[in-house]
Automatic annotation (TrEMBL):
Recorded superkingdom: Eukaryota
A Pfam cross-reference name: B2-adapt-app_C
Domain Beta-adaptin appendage C-terminal subdomain residue range list: 723-840
Biased composition (Basic and acidic residues): 637-655
Keywords: Membrane, Protein transport, Transport
Function of the protein: Subunit of clathrin-associated adaptor protein complex that plays a role in protein sorting in the late-Golgi/trans-Golgi network (TGN) and/or endosomes. The AP complexes mediate both the recruitment of clathrin to membranes and the recognition of sorting signals within the cytosolic tails of transmembrane cargo molecules.
GO cellular component: endomembrane system
Polar residues compositional bias, start-end: 658-677
Cellular localization per UniProt: Endomembrane system
Protein name, as recorded: Beta-adaptin-like protein
Sequence ranges of Low complexity compositional bias: 8-18
């Protein structure tokens, strides 16, 4: 017989079960100790309870011990009580039948002499969250709210809120809100008062959507007696409770200016509080109260500046970033107030990158004529930072300051010095900034071009930088001696360029250079058009085809379209609308400020208001119908902002070689092209106005000039097939917003709505369901009678083409205003007819 395996002398760790039988062993040991009053029994129970909790924590199912754990809870040991309550709360929800076993001992503990046990038992009882057991909660909660101990009352108040979320009707029928309102105004303990305020706000806010009485009760929280009562006791509250009270006060509307000053005087000392959350909550009150008083509002900015800067310099980097985010918001609204404090925004060597980046944005915002030199000097030091992203941001900051100022002499010199640094990322960022600088200050072209001309295109690899260099080569080709030859070398390496943005800029630059120096650019233009028409990227192909047809029509017209006289850009577009910024300001002291976006952009639908409406697609509330079918947005490659779209002659049934055009891609003719050195551009205009279907002889003139070989025959444009939509189309809200901004309006129409449809709009979601039945999905909706706004989208069956629709319905005039944007312009009219047909049937039987 084999000897038994050696036993290990090491005792098993309570966090590591020794085998499958451990749960059974624990069960038998707990059963033996149940009801035992022997000396040391409680200590043994503690050890067993620790093992049970440990096993539960690491994911082992110990629900089979439920009965034994409940039996062992009959003890006065508070530590055992806590562990038992923790166990019960974890398994009660998933095992509601077992939860019945806990009711008796929890109700018994709710009447214990020890207030700590009463409170813990009541908290555990309310944490069971089993709908069938709500009848057992009402009695203990009623006693708990009237308990002499403040801890029990505090737990009972939160218990009422838990009961509401389990069964709202049971909570309202028991009239617990009346008791909470009484405790709010009369309880001596401030934590109980704070809990009452939190519970009542949440309950009445949720009830107000269905009950006018609840809406009126919610308004009473903002009445003068309640607000003043809470303000007079604010120093007694904990920090969390102070923030809760201050959030309420920020919504209060004073009756006159003297009341505003009384509140601010009362809260003045809160600005010196050590806790940053209290300081920010107080600042929000000051800002909200003085919005209608411009002079006082400016004084508030001056007053809150010192507390905010103090909070930035103290505490952890995470806290500094949160405070800096709020300070950044204020700086963007009133940069002149903070302009003298710019040194507070200098970056420290040991700060995290996210803090440095935010400080760079603030330095850009506070720069003015008096401090520009000092700020730019500091930013230039950061350009040599070992942290490359921060170095890039600092160079961009210098460029932004240059675009804001009138006197840019010193800044231009600094940017040109960046171009001479032997660091690729510095040169790349500087090129992009020099391009923007020349767009606003064309008078600096001579100085900038002299330096840019010495940069080899082979040393610039980043797409945006290469695109900026190519733009300057085309725009200032008359001042750059080698411009045509540099462009020609880039065209020769067309296939090696992977960025569509660079290829688009290259097409345009070659065209501009051709108009200014035709003999030297003729060959490069022909090669660029041939390569562009053969390009796999649809935008590049369409632009090349557009340029080709422009030249085919009239060279003088093409020059006016592609290279018109440029006007200096006075203001560059802001990335955020003023409405978005105001919305973020209204949500001061929240994550909206840290994320720099309104809350509806990052909070799930179920936690938002029921019906949000905004005037632009950037502020959409996502409908419930489309929420379930949202998929992650596919990455959309950024293209040239001034992209010239191509022709509408697109063959839906094209083969891969045709690349969407009725023309075949021209090939570069190896034979020598006719010389145009002695022929002015004006003489290159063609007599024919037709692009296809006209005399082929005139069309061949431009082909011969550019060295292209185009087939004489042209393919007939096929009739569009019937439009079918994908019934399961999905589109991510962010992708919708991006497409909406990128695409131009294809159709704008007004239609009438039937009386039945107007009547059915009393429930707007009925329209959403109706359109969905026609394979048209709603991604956002909003408004109130008489104006309703809807955003729809649809997808072409078996294709990636999307149709985006903005539909504004006025129930008074029974009219609908429809704007349609589409990826595929050729089928836009067919989709419009389909959309109108679906809309006209709304409300009909």
């Amino acid at each position: 017989m084999a000897p038994p395996p050696p036993q290990s002398n090491r005792s098993p760790s309570p966090s590591q079960p020794s085998g499958k039988s451990e749960v059974s062993d624990l069960k038998s040991q707990l059963r033996q100790l149940a009801g035992s009053r022997a000396p040391g029994a409680d200590d043994s129970k503690r050890d067993l309870f620790k093992k049970v909790i440990s096993n539960m924590t690491i994911g082992i199912d110990v629900s089979s011990l439920f009965g034994e754990m409940v039996m062992c809870s009959a003890t006065s040991d508070i530590v055992l009580k806590k562990m038992c309550y923790l166990y019960v709360g974890n398994y009660a929800k998933v095992n509601p039948d077992l939860a019945l076993l806990t009711i008796n001992f929890l109700q018994r503990d709710c009447k214990d002499e020890d207030p700590m046990i009463r409170g813990l038992a009541l908290r555990s009882l309310c944490s069971l969250r089993v709908a069938n057991l709500v009848e057992y909660l009402v009695g203990p909660l009623g006693f708990g709210l009237k308990d002499n101990n403040n801890y029990v009352r505090m737990v009972a108040v939160i218990g009422v809120l838990k009961l509401y979320h389990i069964s709202a009707s049971t909570c309202m029928d028991a009239d617990f809100t009346t008791i909470l309102k009484h405790l709010l105004l009369h309880d001596p303990d401030t934590q109980v008062v704070a809990n009452c305020l939190a519970a009542l706000q949440e309950i009445w806010t949720l009830e107000s959507s269905t009950s006018e009485e609840a809406a009126r009760e919610r308004e009473t929280l903002l009445s003068k007696p309640v607000v003043y009562y809470l303000l007079n006791r604010i120093k007694e509250f904990s920090e969390w409770a102070q923030c809760l009270v201050l959030e309420l006060v920020a919504k209060y509307i004073p009756s006159d200016n003297s009341e505003i000053f009384d509140i601010m005087n009362l809260l003045e000392d809160r600005l010196q509080h050590a806790n940053g959350a209290v300081v920010l909550a107080t600042i929000k009150v000051f800002l909200q109260l003085t919005l209608s008083m411009a002079d006082v509002h400016q004084q508030v900015y001056e007053r809150i500046k010192a507390p905010l800067l103090t909070q930035v310099s103290s505490g952890s980097p995470e806290q500094s970033y949160a405070v800096l985010s709020h300070l950044h918001l204020l700086v963007m609204r009133a940069p002149y107030i903070f302009s003298s404090d710019y040194k507070h925004f200098y970056c420290q060597y040991n700060e995290p990158s996210y803090v440095k980046k935010l400080k760079l944005e603030m330095l850009t915002a506070v720069a003015n004529e008096s401090n520009t030199y000092e700020i730019v000097t500091e930013l230039c030091e950061y350009a040599a930072n070992v942290d490359i992203p921060i170095a890039r941001e600092s160079i961009r900051a210098v460029g932004k300051i240059a675009l804001q100022q009138y006197d840019v002499n010193a800044i231009v010199d600094r940017l040109l010095q960046f171009l001479e640094m032997e660091k690729d990322y510095v040169t790349s960022e500087a090129l992009v900034l020099v391009k923007d600088l020349l767009r606003k200050y064309p008078q600096w072209s001579q100085d900038c071009i002299a330096v840019v001309g010495n940069i080899s295109s082979k040393n610039v690899q980043e797409p945006k930088a290469k695109a900026a260099l190519i733009w300057m080569l085309g725009e200032y080709s008359q001042d750059m001696q080698d411009a045509p030859y540099v462009l020609e070398s880039l065209v020769e390496n067309w296939d090696e360029e992977h960025s569509a943005e660079v290829r688009l800029h290259l097409l345009t630059a070659v065209m501009k250079c051709f108009f200014k120096r035709p003999p030297e650019t003729q060959k490069a233009l022909g090669a660029a058009l041939a390569a562009g028409l053969s390009d796999f990227h649809q935008d590049v192909h369409d632009r090349a085809l557009f340029y080709y047809r422009l030249l085919q029509y009239n060279v003088s017209v093409a020059e006016k379209v592609v290279s018109p006289p440029k006007q200096a850009v006075s203001v560059f577009a802001d990335t955020q609308s003023s409405e978005i910024k105001d919305r973020i300001f209204d949500e001061f002291n929240s994550l909206s400020v840290v994320y720099q976006k309104p809350s509806y952009m990052f909070i799930d639908k179920e936690h938002r208001g029921t019906f949000e409406f905004a005037d632009e697609v950037g502020n959409l509330s996502i409908s419930a119908e489309s929420r379930e079918s949202v998929v992650p947005a596919q990455r959309v490659e950024a293209n040239d902002k001034d992209l010239l779209l191509g022709t509408s002659e697109k063959d839906e049934g094209r083969d891969p070689g045709s690349n969407g055009s009725a023309y075949n891609a021209p090939s570069l003719n190896g034979s020598s092209a006719p010389s145009a050195t002695s022929q002015p551009l004006a003489d290159l205009a063609f007599t024919t106005t037709g692009i296809s279907g006209q005399a082929p002889v005139a069309s061949l003139a431009i082909d011969d000039l550019l060295g292209l070989s185009i087939p004489v025959g042209t393919a007939a444009t096929p009739s569009p097939p019937p439009l079918n939509l994908n019934p399961k189309a999905v589109l991510d809200p962010s992708a919708f917003q991006q497409k909406w901004r990128q695409l131009a309006i294809s159709l704008s129409e007004e239609h009438s709505i039937s009386p039945q449809g107007i009547a059915a709009l009393t429930t707007p979601h009925a329209l959403l369901r109706h359109m969905q039945s026609h394979s048209i999905q709603c991604i956002a909706s909003g408004g109130q009678s008489p104006n309703f706004k809807f955003f729809f989208f649809a997808q072409k069956a078996e294709a990636a083409s999307m149709y985006l629709v903005e539909c504004i319905i006025n129930t008074s005039s029974a009219k609908s205003q429809i704007k349609i944007k589409a990826d595929d312009q050729s089928s836009c009219q067919a989709f419009s007819a389909l959309f109108q047909s679906a809309l006209s049937k709304f409300g009909l039987p």
